[in-house]
Amino acid sequence: MRPDPSLADLPLRPELIGEEPYGAPQLAVDVQLNVNENPFAPSAEIAADMAATLTAAATAFNRYPDREAKRLRCALARYLGHGLDLDNVWAANGSNEVMTHILGAFAGPGRTLLAFTPTYSMYPEYARNTHTRYVTAPRHPDFTLDADLVLAAIAEHDADVVIITTPNNPTGTPTPLSVTEAVLQGTDAIVVIDEAYQEFSKHPENTALTLLPSYGNLIVSRTMSKAFALAGGRVGYLAAAPAIVDACRIVRLPYHLSSQTQLVAEVALRHADHLLGQVDQLRRTRDEMLVRLPQLGVEVIDSDANFCLFGPFADRHDVWQRLLDRGVLVRETGPQGWLRVSVGTPDETEAFYAALAEVLKEVR
Length: 364
Ligand code: PMP
Prior knowledge:
Elements: E1 31-32, H1 44-58, H2 70-80, E2 89-92, H3 94-106, E3 112-117, H4 123-129, E4 133-138, H5 147-157, E5 161-165, H6 177-186, E6 190-194, E7 218-223, E8 236-240, H7 242-251, H8 259-270, H9 272-275, H10 279-296, E9 299-300, E10 307-311, H11 316-325, E11 328-329, E12 339-342, H12 346-363
Parallel strand pairs: 1-11, 3-4, 3-5, 5-6, 6-7
Antiparallel strand pairs: 2-8, 7-8, 9-10, 10-12
Helix pairs in contact: 1-8, 2-8, 3-7, 5-6, 10-12
Bound molecules: 4'-deoxy-4'-aminopyridoxal-5'-phosphate.
Residues 36, 94-96, 120, 165, 169, 194, 196, 223, 225, 231, 236 line the site of 4'-deoxy-4'-aminopyridoxal-5'-phosphate.
Cofactor: pyridoxal 5'-phosphate
Catalytic activity: L-histidinol phosphate + 2-oxoglutarate = 3-(imidazol-4-yl)-2-oxopropyl phosphate + L-glutamate
Keywords: Amino-acid biosynthesis, Aminotransferase, Histidine biosynthesis, Pyridoxal phosphate, Transferase
């Protein structure tokens, strides 16, 4: 082969031909409201605690990390409560990697992953990377789900793993616990409830964690990337029956979670009250957004997360670009014609409203 091959020269797996690396544009603009991060940075005190912890531990960085991440998993179990402990919790580099472990263990060649659209655009990528067939069923027109719809789709596709995202990304739609429970009563497929945004919900206590004692096929997926303000730390985790955690331990790469990652996450969990302290404010700003966007003359989908889907626009890319030209980055995702905006700080959110008002004058 020639020394500088192009992708087309390489013996790439057939299903990867023509694929592009996934990801929202990472652009250095003032107002970044495109990937549903918590806009409030850790305090100087928490940053100093992280740095001191890493400095103290660095003299042992010649050693591999704890392969089982036991201290971190205990801390995550304590944070979740509901009587969970180490054996119920698994952690990895973002819930992206947690999902890869779940699919590595329970999906793969000849097996099927089912999700309900519109939903998180990474799910088909997890499936592709684990050689899993990916199928979808549409949500109701108002983006809700009910147990009949979910169970019918499981039966139709003979699904092995089912993902219900609540609140859903990119619509913000919650799925009631009663629906989740009715689904669990009707299937032995692995049911993953992706609660990445659960802390932002109007009723965070209505979590599928409460169903764990009753259903061995239930996995609740969480992340430190959103409410916890630790997207840069890359820590996602799940809670489930111990046997499900054992299955994930079989497929994970050894030492998958670095010493730095484990330590930084442990510090963050010690400061949970502070890091989660802005969640109430983000929830209030989200609720205001549900009122302000219609006042500007656009529709918005009722949201239980830290983002809102708004539109519809004849040319959403044009609106996205005009917002970007004004220093405001939102996300082109979800149903055709709609855009998604994350809840920012009060200043960022005001800058978004001002930019959108100008753009709407231009395009309408
Ligand atoms: N699930 C959902 C529904 C998400 O929106 C995201 C992030 N956008 C994730 C999982 C993955 O988050 P992370 O890998 O940062 O934990």
